């Protein structure tokens, strides 16, 4: 089903349930924020590899700049 590109739709953040506007420029989607995106990846990473709590912000800011 095609959706008009001018329409905005809201989706719940998988991490915290907050509704967010689905936007192509939202690099966090489907999460509401960098925090939720980080939390999800950290949880995933901890489960997979049990890595120490390394800050991932550098990786994400780099990703944001290329994400558009
Ligand atoms: Zn969230």
Attribute tags:
single chain; 68 residues; alpha+beta; Erythroid Transcription Factor GATA-1, Chain A; two-stranded antiparallel ribbon; 2 helices; 12% strand; binds zinc ion
Largest sheet: 2 strands, antiparallel
Number of strands: 2
What is the CATH C-level name?
Answer: Alpha Beta
CATH homology superfamily:
Erythroid Transcription Factor GATA-1, subunit A
The shape, in one word, is flat
The helix fraction, in percent, is 25-40%
- Helix tally? 2
Radius of gyration: 14 Å
Order of helices and strands: EEHH
Average pLDDT taken over every residue: 75
Under the CATH scheme, the architecture is 2-Layer Sandwich
The rounded distance between the terminal residues' Cα atoms is 24 Å
The unreliable regions are: none
The strands making up the biggest β-sheet line up spatially as 1-2
Question: In words, what does this structure look like?
Answer:
The protein is α+β, with helices and mostly antiparallel strands and 68 residues long. The chain has helices spanning 34-49, 57-66, and strands at residues 9-12, 19-22. The chain has a single domain (9-66), classed as Erythroid Transcription Factor GATA-1, subunit A (Erythroid Transcription Factor GATA-1, Chain A). It is built from two helices and two strands. The protein has a two-stranded antiparallel sheet with strand order 1-2. A hairpin with a 6-residue loop joins strand 1 (9-12) and strand 2. The structure holds zinc ion. Zinc ion binds at residues 13, 15-16, 18, 31-33, 36. Zinc ion (ZN) is lined by residues 13, 15-16, 18, 31-33, 36.
